[in-house]
Amino acid sequence: MCGIIAYFGKKNVAPILIDGLKKLEYRGYDSAGVCLLNNGKLQSAKVKGRVSELEKLALGLNPANIGIAHTRWATHGEPNEVNAHPHFGCPAGRDPATRDKPEIAVVHNGIIENYSALKEILEREGHIFVSKTDSEVLSHLIEKFYDGNLENAVVKALKLVEGTFGIAVLCSKENKIVVARKGSPIVLGVGEEENIVASDAVAVLPFTKKVVYINDNEMIVLTEGNYSIKNFEGQAVEKVIDEIKWTATEIEKKGFKHFMLKEIFEQPNAIENTLRGRIDSENKIKLSIDIDFNLIKRIVIVACGTSWHSALIGKYLIEKLAGFSVDVDYASEFRYRNPIIGTGDLLLVISQSGETADALAALREAKAKGAKTLGIINVVGSTISREVDSGIYLHAGPEIGVASTKAFSCQVTALLLLALYLAQQKGKVISKEFFDDIRDLPQKVEETLKQSDKILLLAEKFEDSKNFIYLGRGLNFPVALEGALKLKEISYIHAEGYPAAEMKHGPIALVDSEMPVVFIATKDSTYSKILSNMEEVHARGGQVIALLSETDNSVSNLTENIIMVPKCREELMPIINTVPLQLLAYHIANLKGIDVDKPKNLAKSVTVE
Ligand code: M6R
Fold first, then answer.
1. Residues near ligand 1 with C-beta < 6 Å?
2. Range of the domain at 73
3. What is the pTM of this model?
4. Looking at per-residue confidence, does 351 or 504 come out higher?
5. How many angstroms separate the CA atoms of 235 and 229, rounded?
6. How far is the CA of 399 from the centre of ligand 1 (A)?
7. If you average pLDDT over every residue of the chain, what do you get?
8. Given ligand 1 and candidates 328, 352, 406, 490, which is best to mutate, with the most ligand atoms within 8 Å of its CB?
9. Is 254 helix (H, G, I), strand (E, B) or coil?
């Protein structure tokens, strides 16, 4: 998704903006641009393509200490230089309607839903548009309302706008940057006589750990060595300065070829961080959840993508261990019907970023209908984490790879803790052995990671396959979905995840000698059933890849493509079993020469609906 960075301080701004954009690259983008303000003149550069290409142009501009920059992920208008941000008003003199106006430059994240109507009015008034974007209406609107005060012009413009925005605005006549948000994240980094604004704390981190999160309908005005925060009515808003707990080195690759690979290998440590302090010496689960579960009759989990897969696992765990009824919904579907939810329901929202637009919208809908809300979130201070009634942070550290890996295993760990917490609230006794096994989990993931070289050999064998099927049952069905998603998003190979028993109801028609079928067949309660499914695929010439519990030799007559994982209790299997599938997807994509951290068309954090 789009990224914003803006700086006002004493330093040369171009390298700061470029470094910030590089930190935002992981979010996904197709074009980029900067605009600097120097002695009453705006100077800009834009490119279609990579920030490294923009860098040469930006560093060639006259030095300045005020500037804004953007990475664009196209929604309205194809990715090209004209549609890249910043967008401008009418350059002085180009049109009589704006001849006496200053130049305005805007970078925008979000979508302006009523842009066509606004554009029509502005064009009738003489404004000349050059791009196909929705964003360009903002620069013309601000220009229209400018009467010597940029803040006022921005507020007047934003009051006409429907949709979502995070914006940063420059004006050639004022030494300031005006930033505003509604529905699109913005964070302010507070430095010594210099301040930086970004759409993502990761871009602020190398600069300062002191941050202020702003809410919808608030704006920041950066002036020389200072900042102020107001609402759209012009009233000052008191804010606390928070401290980001992540360190700048956590967003380095540390010798790994890709962030994704580093994050796969970080899982033992990340899981330990999710568990830390949450199981006491008497095996009581400690979670700071301020919700009376005696009043909760049903839990509804909403999430997207990989987080939705962990939600499916959460349903199994909570229903099995705690006996609560759980529904799971795609966040994007939940809010576009009339969901039956209200008092007595708990809406649990799972999101790595805490900024996914559909998850946020679902949360707001459920809150408005009277449900209690709980979040399982990785990014501290994110919008969802601030809007839920209670939350469980993953403490997985920053996840930069677009393909989610460590966040998934930590989400499932957090869901397991929640299931056990709810079980204990209901007075259910959980065995000591269960807790011992949980404490061993990071070690078991570490052992699983040792399979990486063996999995690479399988990747070499199957990298040219055009399709894959992933099959699992029970708790391993969402693992099959997750394995398929990982493969398709980074290797661009078509892959389907299915409940193994459903295969006979359709997908089996696809099976032939060209079709690799990955079975997640570790020793759980459905083991014998899935072996039968394996026989069925083998009988039709399919190429079986089997994920088995170690020392299981029972399918050596069906396949030589075997990955062994450490034995563990059923409830922990989804975490262990997903790791080899992450590695299989990674190795295949890497062999294909794909930049796995920046897969085409994808964005790390999907902040538009
Ligand atoms: O930040 P979130 O967990 O809300 O993100 C949800 C999905 O966009 C995300 O999991 C996506 O599917 C990943 N690319 C999967 O690897």
1. 304-307, 351-353, 356, 359, 402-404, 489, 602, 605-606
2. 3-252
3. 0.82
4. 351
5. 8
6. 11
7. 92
8. 352
9. coil
